Amino acid sequence: MKRIHRTYSDTEVTILSTNVKCPYCGQEWLEEDKNECGETYTLHCDEDDDGCGKDFEMYFDAS
Predict the structure, then answer these.
(1) Torsion sign over Cα 30, 61, 43, 28
(2) Is the pLDDT of residue 63 over 80?
(3) CA nearest to 55, candidates 47, 44, 40, 39
(4) H or E stretch at 31
(5) How far apart are CA 18 and CA 21, in angstroms?
(6) Rounded mean pLDDT of the chain?
(7) Given this model, what pLDDT does residue 11 score?
(8) Residue 26's CB: how many other CB atoms inside 10 A?
(9) What is the pTM of this model?
(10) Torsion sign, CA atoms 28, 33, 36, 39
C-alpha cells in the first residue's frame, strides 16, 4: 500500500465552528459559519437536543 505525508502547511480551513452556550438553559453546541466579526446572529436552542427551545441572539467578535 502506498502512503503520502501531509503537514499543516498542506491544510486548509473550510468551516469554522463557534462554541455556543444557551443563556437560558446552559445547553452547549457548535454553530458552523457563524463567525463574521461585528455580526449578530439569531440562534435557536433545539428542543430535540435537550435544549429549551428558545431563541436568543449571539454577537460575534473575534477579539
Answers:
(1) positive
(2) no
(3) 44
(4) strand 28-32
(5) 10
(6) 92
(7) 84
(8) 10
(9) 0.76
(10) negative
Residue 58 has pLDDT above 90, yes or no: yes
What residue type is 60 in one-letter code?
Answer: F
Give the Cα separation of 21 and 28 in Å (integer): 4
Cβ atoms of residues 27 and 45 within 8 Å? yes
pLDDT score, position 31: 95
pLDDT at 14: 87
28-32 vs 17-21, strand pairing mode? antiparallel
In the predicted model, is pLDDT for residue 62 greater than 80? no
Helix-, strand-, coil-residue percentages of the chain, each rounded to 5: 10, 30, 60
Nearest residue to 39 (alpha-carbon basis) of 9, 63, 10, 60: 60
Give me 58's grid cell: 449571539
Q: What are the cell numbers at 43?
A: 440562534
